[in-house]
Specification:
The protein is an alpha/beta fold. The chain has three domains: about 1-155, Spo0b-associated Gtp-binding Protein, Chain: A, CATH 2.70.210; about 160-335, 3-Layer(aba) Sandwich (Rossmann fold), CATH 3.40.50; about 355-475, GMP Synthetase, Chain A, domain 3. Helix content is about 25%, strand content about 20%. The chain has helices at about 60, 125-130, 170-180, 255-270, 285-300, 320-335, 370-380, 385-400, 400-405, 430-440, 455-475, and strands at about 5-15, 45-50, 65, 85-90, 95-100, 105-110, 115-120, 150-155, 160-165, 195-205, 205-210, 240-245, 275-280, 305-310, 345, 355-360, 365-370, 415, 425. The strands form four sheets. The protein has a six-stranded mixed β-sheet with strand order 10-11-9-12-13-14, sandwiched between helices. A five-stranded mixed β-sheet has the order 3-1-8-5-6. Strand 5 and strand 6 form a beta hairpin. Helix 10 (about 430-440) runs antiparallel to helix 11 (about 455-475). The two termini are about 50 Å apart. It binds guanosine-5'-triphosphate and magnesium ion (MG). It comes from Streptomyces yaizuensis. It holds the Pfam family DUF1967. This is GTPase Obg. Its cofactor is Mg(2+).
Amino acid sequence: MTTFVDRVELHVAAGNGGHGCASVHREKFKPLGGPDGGNGGRGGDVILVVDQSVTTLLDYHHSPHRKATNGQPGEGGNRSGKDGQDLVLPVPDGTVVLDRHGEVLADLVGHGTTFVAGQGGRGGLGNAALSSARRKAPGFALLGVPGEARDVVLELKTVADVALVGYPSAGKSSLISVLSAAKPKIADYPFTTLVPNLGVVTAGSTVYTMADVPGLIPGASQGKGLGLEFLRHVERCSVLVHVLDTATLESERDPLSDLDAIEAELKQYGGLEDRPRIVVLNKVDIPDGQDLAELIRPDLQARGYRIFEVSAVARTGLKELSFALAGIVAEARAAKPVQEATRIVIRPKAVDDAGFTVRQEADGLFRVRGEKPERWVRQTDFNNDEAVGYLADRLNRLGVEDQLMKAGARAGDGVAIGPEDNAVVFDWEPSMNAGAEMLGRRGEDHRMEAPRPAAQRRRDRDAERDDAQQAYDEFDPFK
Ligand SMILES: Nc1nc2c(ncn2[C@@H]2O[C@H](COP(=O)(O)OP(=O)(O)OP(=O)(O)O)[C@@H](O)[C@H]2O)c(=O)[nH]1
Ligand SMILES: [Mg+2]
């Protein structure tokens, strides 16, 4: 028997972006021909895709660490680095993706449905792309951004049209085995089925799937027997089939009280109330079973159930059952809107996608959060002064410096960009643009020799901003 794995922890790591290249074009008689460093390639994504030929999560149980390839660094001569390859991970239909805290990130139903579990990092711009009218020959390039790393939990909720429920040994697995090509284990002891079986049934032109779940007993909701854990596999079914044993040897049981007991457990589990139900009276090949079936039929009919008398062993009543189920399934399918394969892209929630926040913490540190500032920091080679200057320009352009000023930051204060566990911390040195006016007023800006008139300062600042903005707009191909 193949192992059935329906819950795994998966650690995905998307590819890192390749670093941009800082290079200067050289030719004979033309030693400084301008910047020609190419951009780094994008890191590959890790993508989960529903593949109907995959039925368990076993592969991920065996190797739970998956990484997409990195983007290649850019090179001189304006050569861009190659993009990393996306890593496509096939998952069974009905896989639910949860984060570490159990929150549902995606519910993957339907062949081809896709979820980007980890986004590849952007490649860094090379110095060719970073050059502008103001910055003719940048001596730096941007670093590639690390790929997104994430721990997710994959949970399989089998997508079966028909779910068989009932006491242990009622004959659920036997029914699947005679209605489909599946060959589940069948035995005369309770709890033979430890994990759900899935079979494909063909009735006329309708093809549908049927799953059983391990037998339920009273108290399953309190964990008796195998508990209700496996009921998640029937959550998506269109119809529930009560398989009742008409020939049980246990004296305190009979099909009607069995039905009540199972219904009580289903109710405990919840969420299945709206599903249509039918009743299958199994084992009518046994004379006592046949008698009992006839005896309880009126009662069941009074409760509004459609009833099918079958024998999985003698193979009687099966055709009527499978065609009736096909009818219900077809109806349910017609009622459901057609689900299109979707590419769901879930990104980690940025504090504020459009901007950033500045907040002073108890210890006096100013913390800046935001998708852009945090990415820009990761793209910066802090060993290169020019690159750090460029970062300052970008932050300034976004208004980070202004906000820091507003929040009360002064030269020399600590500023952290990023989350607590992964931030770049530095002593703030306000650049001219942001700091001039205020620092000028306070008379603290030691870098300013002759104070410019306010109007001039404003004009200068605007000009610089426009320039920088233009450079950014023109040359960031990832924007
Ligand atoms: N006589 C007779 N025996 C049957 C019939 N269907 C199933 N059985 C027997 O009942 C026993 C249990 O059958 P299974 O199909 O394993 O029952 P199950 O409902 O899947 O049981 P669990 O997996 O334990 O929940 C086996 O010995 C079967 O051969 C039937 O129609 N007639
Ligand atoms: Mg079974």
